[in-house]
Design a protein that fits this description.
two-stranded antiparallel sheet; globular; mainly alpha; 482 residues
Length: 482
């Protein structure tokens, strides 16, 4: 029997078992929702069928099982947060097309310097900054070619070239993962958190770009420091001599910015400014009024409104290199990761199903004993559980499954939901051990320069460091989000 078929049968069997067990003590809709949840979780974890295909199951199953109306379910796949992510992808494709991301990366590397430790720091900073705004997958692919060129040069001139190669490749991968947590746009779990917060806590201040970055950016910077230090120390970069002539040549070869790069940069900077200033911005000594209040229907404007509007300008503005074409063409964005966008909708549908079926109340009753646990222990447990679960599952799927449960848990225990949801969201990006944990890990491992044992040993230490740092920061500072 094919392995994939075994996983499918296993997932279906697990879903039916959950349905049957819950049905003994609860009504049909609650049992059906439990079965669908377990089925989708198993399919997402085993990847027995494509993640996007699993994400579409609620459209067919929820109406058939009486869980939710099909119009309510399909509305989840058009959530405005999905279009914010879409805007981010289109911007990333524009940056890639005109090689603006390369210019940013090499400028950073050139400023930092060319000693072994500085090369590692430069590549990690470039990876960190780029992944704040474009996908960590694209960031890692971009930096891989120049990194391999440096590694080849080092291997020809040093006996310790393999240690430098491992440190550099892991540094790029890890920095892209933590950099993606710094902004809402950097990685899917961040946007999932924001959408669930908005849907479930309408009477509380919404969390947008400035609120998220006020907490997540310092967390990611603080985590960056021990990761850099650990890689530098573990792989003995201090005693290594590197000339990096190829890298220096690439930095020096940067010419003046093209017209197209300037246009994309202007759109990019305008997006950042508008996202950060849409609502009132508290700077401590002074509070700036958000530009959104200038519109009579400001409550209708979202971050996705700005994102889609501005990236659409790239389809209007003509290119100087080819007067018959615009800065970006539809053909440039045909490779959009629709599977991830569907994954958003599938997760939002599960959250809807929990409420509509009444399964949320059943889960809440089972979580009541946790109210007696110390908050720091709950946060630490969440960080470790999500980190190690994400080592073998999609971080998007993990977040979609767990955040609705953590909302129920917060309501049951009386804990501020931010203390549970934010650590879980960030931990979903802090899996450093295995190649399958994140796309950057898989890409650098595919170079065959990193032994599995070395990656696991290094990543295991960093998993615990990240969990401990995040627990402390979340326990003391999470409330600055609102």
């Amino acid at each position: 029997m094919p392995k994939q078929l075994k996983y499918i049968l296993f997932s279906v069997g697990l879903g039916l078992l959950a349905w049957a067990l819950v049905w003994q003590n609860h009504d049909f809709r609650i049992a059906a929702m439990a079965g669908v949840t377990v089925l989708m979780a198993a399919l997402w974890i085993t990847e027995a069928i494509p993640l996007g295909a699993t994400s579409l199951l609620p459209i067919g199953l929820f109406p058939m099982l009486g869980i939710a109306n099909v119009s309510d379910v399909t509305a989840q796949y058009g959530h405005h947060i999905i279009f914010l992510f879409l805007a981010g992808f289109i911007l990333a494709y524009a940056m890639e097309k005109w090689k603006l991301h390369q210019r940013i990366a090499f400028k950073i590397i050139g400023v930092v310097g060319f000693s072994p430790s500085r090369i590692l720091l430069g590549f990690m900073l470039a990876s960190f900054v780029l992944s704040m705004w474009i996908s960590n997958l694209a960031t890692t692919i971009l930096l891989l070619a120049p990194a391999l060129a440096v590694i080849q040069e080092v291997n020809q001139k040093s006996k310790n070239g393999s240690a430098f190669a491992i440190a550099l490749l892991l540094g790029i991968s890890y920095a892209s993962s933590i950099g993606g947590t710094a902004t809402p746009l950097g990685t899917a779990p961040n946007l999932i958190f924001m959408s669930l917060w908005e849907e479930n806590f309408k009477d509380v201040k919404a969390i947008g770009f400035p609120e998220w970055m006020r907490f997540a950016l310092p967390v990611s910077i603080i985590l960056f420091i021990p990761i850099f230090w650990h890689l530098k120390r573990s792989f003995g970069l201090k005693d290594l001599e590197v000339s990096a002539n190829d890298l220096k040549a690439k930095v020096k070869s940067l010419t003046k910015m093209t017209y197209e790069e300037i246009v994309v940069s202007a759109i990019f900077l305008a997006l950042i400014a508008l996202w950060l200033t849409r609502r009132d911005l508290d700077l401590g000594l002074v509070e700036l009024q958000g530009w959104g209040d200038l519109f009579p229907y400001s409550d209708m404007i979202k971050d996705s409104t700005i994102g889609i509007l501005l990236v659409n300008l790239l389809f209007f503005i003509p290119s100087k290199q080819n007067a018959e074409k615009q800065i970006i063409e539809w053909g440039d964005v045909k490779k959009l990761p629709y599977e991830i966008l569907l994954l958003f909708g599938g997760g939002f549908s599960l959250a809807l199903g929990f409420k509509e079926s009444g399964l949320d109340k059943v889960i809440a009753s089972q979580l009541e004993p946790l109210a007696t646990w110390p908050l720091w222990l709950i946060i630490l447990g969440i960080c470790l559980f999500v980190t190690f679960l994400t080592e073998i599952t999609s971080n998007t799927a993990t977040t979609q499954l767990l955040l609705p449960l953590l909302i129920i848990m917060a309501n049951t225990t009386g804990v501020n939901p931010l203390y549970l949801m934010v650590p879980a969201t960030l931990s979903a990006s802090f899996a450093f051990m295995l190649p399958v944990a994140t796309p950057p890990n898989a890409i650098v491992y595919s170079t065959e320069m990193i032994p599995m044992k070395t990656m696991m040993r290094t990543g295991l230490i960093l998993n615990f460091i990240a969990a401990l740092i995040l627990t402390v920061l979340a326990y003391f500072f999470t409330e600055i989000l609102i």
